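The methods section describes the discrete structure representation at length, but only in general terms. An entry of this sort, consisting of the sequence and the corresponding backbone structure tokens, reads as follows.
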Amino acid sequence: MSGEVEVTGSARVEEAVEAAEMPAEPLGRTPSQTIGPYFGFALPWPDGPTVVPEGTAGAIEIRGRLTDGHGDPVPDALIEIWQADPDGHFDHPADPVGSSFRGFGRAPTDEQGGFRFVTMKPGPVPDGAGAMQAPHVDVSVFARGLLKRLVTRIYFDDEAAANAADPILALVDPAARGTLLARRDGDGYRFDIRLQGDGETVFFDL
């Protein structure tokens, strides 16, 4: 019978099994898999979005919405932020001054793709080459369909002079710089993230 392998001794059982299971031609590579769905244990945590407690003097709120290329909300993503304190210092060993400010936040998006952070507005930071970078927040986006995180920045639309001198913003097409600006919205700032399509947010190739 086609597909059967004759076995003439018990010592050849393993060899026979291998022969029966061996495909006629080598198999190709399987397609790359996207990340997700997430096993969400310990990824979000209760005060992840509150970099500083609600009601902290000088605190700001940054809120926005994550959408895909069709403009539909992405409801199961994670948004991370990392930033300097209001004086431009980090809670990091590489900062010679240092800071007690946590500077790190993580928020899951809701069913409408919404996210929200309570934090402090960062101060300007040196770029390592003698220039100063405008106040900004580093942002990472993790979502289904992404093999690796997307990285962008939040600048502030009421920091026009600092933004004009920022060496990183200067590398961005002027027509697209608006996608990196958080805009004043009531008592906070609004920063929406578009993954693709018209108005796609500028992401950095790291």
Q: What stands out?
A: The mean pLDDT is 86.
